[in-house]
TrEMBL record:
Database matches in InterPro entries: Extradiol_RC_dioxygenase, Glyas_Bleomycin-R_OHBP_Dase, Glyas_Fos-R_dOase_dom, VOC_core
Organism phylogeny: Bacteria, Bacillati, Bacillota, Bacilli, Bacillales
PROSITE patterns: VOC
Domain VOC as annotated: residue spans: 8-134, 159-285
Listed name of the protein: Ring-cleaving dioxygenase
UniProt cross-references to Pfam families, sorted A to Z: Glyoxalase
Species per Swiss-Prot/TrEMBL record: Rossellomorea aquimaris
Keywords in alphabetical order: Dioxygenase, Oxidoreductase
Gene3D superfamilies: 2,3-Dihydroxybiphenyl 1,2-Dioxygenase, domain 1 (3.10.180.10)
Entry GO MF terms: dioxygenase activity
PANTHER family (UniProt xref): RING-CLEAVING DIOXYGENASE MHQA-RELATED (PTHR36110:SF4), RING-CLEAVING DIOXYGENASE MHQE-RELATED (PTHR36110)
């Protein structure tokens, strides 16, 4: 079938109950650029916000669906339990620790738990995040921070790092990662909590921080009940539309129920759930976010794919205004 290996993380999509506070935190505190203000294409009454590097290069996107009535997240298994964001150096983490202290952001101490310098923190809704140093990274290259960010470019976030999957039945997920998606199991890191099994490490493509998954098996937790501050899905990079169609055929041949080819305008996608119920997406690197906006004005206006333009007036009437031109 001539499938090319997945290239690493494409984006992570999470849930927020407050688009305005979300926008303020991720742009003004974390210094990411809002590269697209759009809608959830499966529910046009809510925003879909895309934060990334300067132009939304694949592998740098952290996105949020606004669900105003989203309840509390009850953490547990069968979830994407930790999202990491890459910075260029160990020194950058010292900058971020001070920034978090000054901004009142809940954070941990700098650690080397995974063999890389990292700084765990939570957003205002308890979204579980960590900054991870790329100082010794030899894999997938990061993106380029936006020059107009409130965070100095040398300390800016350059993309997504390892994503942690917490599941009740680890071997089932591992089998899909290796036998279906082509990941390599490369080792382990210590468990986050004493008495728990080591966390298994998988990588794809060029490897490194931008192409790594961490698989944590927990038999002592209930299944997660998602809400605000939880992660909806993780997406992995596919080179182009032609390769994606091959992946559609392969996932179907592997007897995994899936969405088939889905047009998202800014990229093309395929969705399926692995055996523990976590939603995976395969997404193409292009066409990208400059399809309908110039580089200088990315994220300033409500962007709708052409197939929603006829509904613009109705869609805008249901959305709470969100000023992103600041």
């Amino acid at each position: 079938m001539n499938l090319k290996p997945l290239k690493g993380q494409h984006h992570v999509s999470a849930i927020t109950a407050n688009a305005k506070k979300n926008y303020e935190f991720y742009t003004k505190t974390l210094g990411l650029r809002l590269v697209k203000k759009s809608i959830n294409q499966d529910d046009t009454s809510v925003y879909h916000l895309f934060y990334a590097d300067e132009r939304g290069n694949p592998g740098t996107d952290l996105t949020f669906f606004e669900i105003p009535n989203a309840g509390h997240t009850y953490k547990g298994t069968n979830s994407i339990s930790l999202t990491s964001l890459r910075v260029k150096s160990d020194d950058a983490l010292a900058y971020w620790k001070k920034r978090f202290e000054e901004s009142g952001v809940e954070h941990d101490e700098i650690s080397h738990h995974t063999g890389r310098a990292a700084l765990g923190f939570r957003d205002f809704e308890g979204q579980r995040l960590t900054l991870i140093s790329d100082e010794n990274n030899a894999g997938v290259a990061g993106g380029k921070p936006w020059e107009k960010s409130p965070v100095p470019v040398e300390y800016g976030i350059v993309g997504l790092g390892p994503v942690t999957l917490t599941v009740a039945r680890g071997e089932l997920t591992a089998k899909v990662l290796t036998e279906v998606l082509g990941y390599r199991e490369t080792g382990t890191i210590p468990a986050y909590e004493k008495g728990q099994p080591s966390i298994r490490v998988f990588e794809t493509g060029e490897g490194g921080t931008g192409a790594e998954l961490h698989l944590e098996e927990r038999n002592d937790l209930p299944q997660e009940r998602p809400g605000r501050g939880s992660v909806h899905h993780v997406a992995f990079r596919v080179e182009d539309k032609k390769q994606l169609q091959k992946w559609v055929d392969w996932i179907t041949q592997s007897r995994l129920p899936n969405s088939g080819f889905v047009e998202r305008y800014y990229f093309r996608s395929l969705y399926f759930r692995e055996p523990n119920g976590i939603l995976f997406e395969l997404a193409t690197d292009g066409p990208g976010f400059e399809t309908d906006e110039d580089f200088d004005s990315l994220g300033e206006n409500l962007s709708l794919p052409p197939y929603f333009e006829a509904q613009r007036e109705s869609i805008e009437s249901r959305l709470k205004p969100l000023d992103t031109k600041e």
